[in-house]
Design a protein that fits this description.
The protein has 8 helices and 5 strands, in the order αββαβαααααββα. The protein has helices at residues 2-55, 88-106, 128-141, 145-154, 166-175, 180-188, 193-205, 226-236; strands at residues 70-72, 77-83, 110-116, 213-216, 219-220. Helix 3 runs antiparallel to helix 4, helix 3 (128-141) crosses helix 7 and helix 5 (166-175) runs antiparallel to helix 6 (180-188). The chain folds into 2 domains: 1-56; 70-236, Glutaredoxin, CATH 3.40.30. It has a 5-stranded mixed β-sheet with strand order 1-3-2-4-5, sandwiched between helices. The chain is extended. The termini are far apart. Strand 2, helix 2 and strand 3 (110-116) form a beta-alpha-beta unit.
Length: 238
């Protein structure tokens, strides 16, 4: 009698263990299925959001077809400039080589695609990189992109502060011949901030990790001096 009772108890323990194991497996598979659903849904959501984000911008007049930069000049060789208006090295580059690039454009040897990126927002308390790049889009809208970009570098604020105010950005625009009211409305409305985000994102995807970056016909130029840029343009034009 005692033996049969022991066997029944042992069988019951085995059944309980098997039941617990089945419950554990069901819980595991349910959890895995839920995670898979979340991953798939998250991937779909990210793809949708990313596509919406990259498409939800208006490029300014004079932008290249993909909207990743503003073009000036019409020469056979393309000089691509990736610059941040808060970048001190970019201001130094413009001071050293800007006149040479303008001369190459004037001589019909090159065209420029200027990519105003916003890499340095973390060095401003007001996202100055984004605000100034968006303001350059407003300048392109008024037909004065190059003049305004040069003026922004001449008035470049120090890193770590607020940067120039919107009112100061408007003053610079008026100084290069842009309509104060139209430009001011464009800046205050943030018209080209989504475009600035698109330009910055595209530059990052293209492998641009710092500013200034100069490419001539798609090849990055190590020597950004006037002589180096002139030689690279002449070599590309042969």
């Amino acid at each position: 009698m005692s033996s049969r009772k022991g066997q029944k108890d042992a069988a019951r323990v085995v059944r309980q263990q098997l039941a617990r194991e089945r419950r554990r497996k069901r819980t595991l598979w349910t959890s895995l299925a839920a995670v898979a659903v979340l991953v798939i849904a998250g991937g779909i959501g990210w793809a949708f959001w990313s596509s919406q984000r990259s498409d939800n911008f208006t490029p300014p007049p004079g932008a290249v077809g993909a909207g990743t930069g503003v073009v000036y000049g019409a020469g056979p060789v393309t000089i691509e400039l990736y610059e941040d208006f808060l970048c001190p090295a970019c201001a130094q580059f413009q001071q050293a080589s800007g006149a040479t690039i303008n001369q190459l454009v004037a001589e019909g040897k090159a065209r420029v695609v200027f990519h105003p990126v916003a890499y340095l927002n973390r060095f401003s308390t007001t996202s100055y990189s984004t605000r100034s790049a968006a303001a350059s889009g407003c300048a392109a809208q008024g037909g004065k992109f190059r003049e305004y970009a040069e003026a922004l570098f001449q008035r470049q604020p120090p890193e770590g502060g607020a940067g120039l105010s919107n009112a100061e950005l408007v003053d610079i625009a008026a100084g290069v011949g842009l309509d104060r009211n139209d430009f001011g409305s464009c800046v205050s409305d943030g018209t080209y901030e989504p475009w600035t985000e698109h330009v910055t994102e595209a530059a990052s995807k293209a492998g641009v990790t710092g500013t200034p970056t100069v490419k001539i016909d798609g090849k990055e130029v190590a020597d950004r001096s006037p002589a180096g840029i002139t030689a690279a343009v002449e070599a590309a034009g042969r």
